[in-house]
Write a structure and sequence with these properties.
Blueprint (H helix, E strand, L loop, with lengths): L2 H4 L4 H10 L8 E4 L4 E7 L2 E9 L5 H16 L7 E2 L8 E5 L2 E9 L4 E2 L7 H18 L15 H10 L6 H14 L9 E4 L8 E4 L2 E4 L6 E4 H16 L7 H16 L7 H4 L2 H19 L7 H14 L8 H4 L2
Antiparallel strand pairs: 1-2, 2-3, 3-6, 4-6, 5-6, 7-9, 8-11, 9-10
Length: about 325
C-alpha cells in the first residue's frame, strides 16, 4: 500500500468493512497488500477472499463491471471464484474516506491446490481447456445490467499505455505493435468471436480440486476476442517451457494443445480463421507485459526468478511466434 493510500485507510474504514461482512479484523489474514489489499477469512465453516481497493487504483464503476459479469457466469455454472453479498445485500461495499473511498468485495475462495510442475499434465491441460471453453460459451449470452458501464476493449488502453512512454522502447517494437493491432482488426467482433474474457488465464490464477479447475483473479477482465484467452495461456505455456532445456518446444506445444482442445471443444467452438490470430496475439501480449515490467521494475533490484521472467518477455516482445503454425494449434 502506498503512503498516499495508507493515510486514508483509517481504523474507521476497517471497522465499516468488517462490520459489513460480519467479521472482526482479527479474523482477517493479509495475503497481499501491494496494490489491492487481499485478505483471507473464514466464516460459518467456509473460506473467503476479501479484496479492498482504493478509488485511486480502481473506480467503483470498473469493479462493478467485473462483479456483475462474475456473478452472471457463476450463476450459469462457470467454475470461477464468485462474489458474495455483504450483510447489507451488496456485492460491493463503498466506504468513504475524506474525499476518496474504498471498495470492498468478498469472493468464495477457490478450493484445491496450485498447479505446478508436479501436476502439470494431460489431465490438467484438458481441464484448462474445458473451463476456458465453458467461460466463453456462457459469456456469449451475458448482457451487462442497465446500471453497469461495460469494460473497455482490452487492446486500445494497452496501446495507449505503451505509447505514453514510448521513449523507453526502440522504434521497431512500437512499429511491430501497431502492425499487429492493424492485422488483428480482421478478426470479427461478433457474438461467436468476441466478448468479455478473463484475460489472464495462467496456472497462477487457478486451483485444482477433485480434477476440476476454478479460475480466480479476474481484475484484468476486458472485452476482446475469445481466442485472446487461448493465446495468453499458450504464451505462458511457452514461457514455462523455457525452463526445460531438454525438450522440443514445437512438440510440447502440440502435446499441450491436443489435450487443451479436447477439453475446450467439449464446451465451445472456435472458428479456425480466428486461430490464425494466436501467434500475433502472443507477440502483442508479450509487448504489453514487457512494457508493464519495464515500468514497475524500473530501478528495482530483481531476484533470479524476476530477472529470468524479464529476460524471457524481452525476448518474446522483440521476436515473433511465426514458427507456431496452424499444424501446431488447430484442433
Amino acid at each position: 500500500m502506498t503512503p498516499f493510500i495508507e493515510k486514508y485507510y483509517t481504523p474507521q474504514v476497517i471497522t465499516e468493512i468488517t462490520k459489513a461482512f460480519g467479521v472482526s479484523f482479527s479474523d482477517l489474514k493479509l495475503l497481499r497488500g501491494n496494490v489491492n489489499l487481499i485478505y483471507a477469512f473464514r466464516k460459518n465453516g467456509k473460506n473467503y477472499i476479501l479484496r479492498i481497493t482504493h478509488s485511486s487504483v480502481q473506480k467503483v464503476e470498473e469493479l462493478l463491471s467485473e462483479v456483475d459479469w462474475l456473478h452472471y457466469v457463476q450463476q450459469q455454472g462457470a467454475n470461477v471464484s464468485a462474489p458474495i453479498e455483504s450483510l447489507n445485500g451488496n456485492l460491493i461495499e463503498i466506504i468513504k474516506s475524506e474525499d476518496t473511498y474504498f471498495t470492498a468485495t468478498a469472493y468464495t475462495e477457490a478450493k484445491g491446490k496450485k498447479i505446478d510442475r508436479f501436476n502439470w499434465n494431460e489431465t490438467v491441460f484438458k481441464e484448462i481447456g474445458r473451463v476456458t471453453g465453458q467461460l466463453h460459451r456462457i459469456t456469449k449470452d451475458y448482457k451487462p445490467g442497465s446500471h453497469v458501464i461495460p469494460r473497455s476493449d482490452f487492446v486500445d488502453p494497452e496501446v495507449a499505455r505503451v505509447m505514453s512512454h514510448k521513449e523507453i522502447h526502440d522504434e521497431q517494437l512500437i512499429a511491430r505493435m501497431h502492425k499487429l493491432v492493424d492485422t488483428l482488426k480482421g478478426i470479427p467482433k461478433t457474438r461467436d468471436h468476441y466478448g468479455l474474457i478473463h484475460n489472464d488465464i495462467n496456472r497462477g490464477n487457478m486451483f485444482i480440486h477433485n480434477g476440476q479447475i476454478c479460475l480466480f483473479d479476474t481484475a484484468d477482465c476486458a472485452y476482446s476476442w475469445f481466442v485472446a484467452d487461448i493465446a495468453l495461456t499458450l504464451l505462458y505455456v511457452v514461457q514455462y517451457f523455457q525452463n526445460d532445456p531438454n525438450g522440443k518446444l514445437t512438440a510440447h506445444i502440440r502435446y499441450f494443445m491436443d489435450y487443451y482442445w479436447e477439453g475446450y471443444q467439449s464446451e465451445n467452438k472456435i472458428v479456425e480463421e480466428d486461430l490464425k490470430g494466436i501467434p500475433l496475439i502472443m507477440t502483442l501480449r508479450s509487448i504489453f507485459i514487457y512494457d508493464h515490467l519495464c515500468t514497475i521494475w524500473k530501478n528495482k533490484k530483481l531476484n533470479h526468478a524476476q530477472q529470468n521472467f524479464f529476460n524471457i518477455l524481452h525476448s518474446f516482445s522483440h521476436e515473433t511466434f511465426d514458427f507456431i503454425g496452424m499444424e501446431l494449434i488447430r484442433p
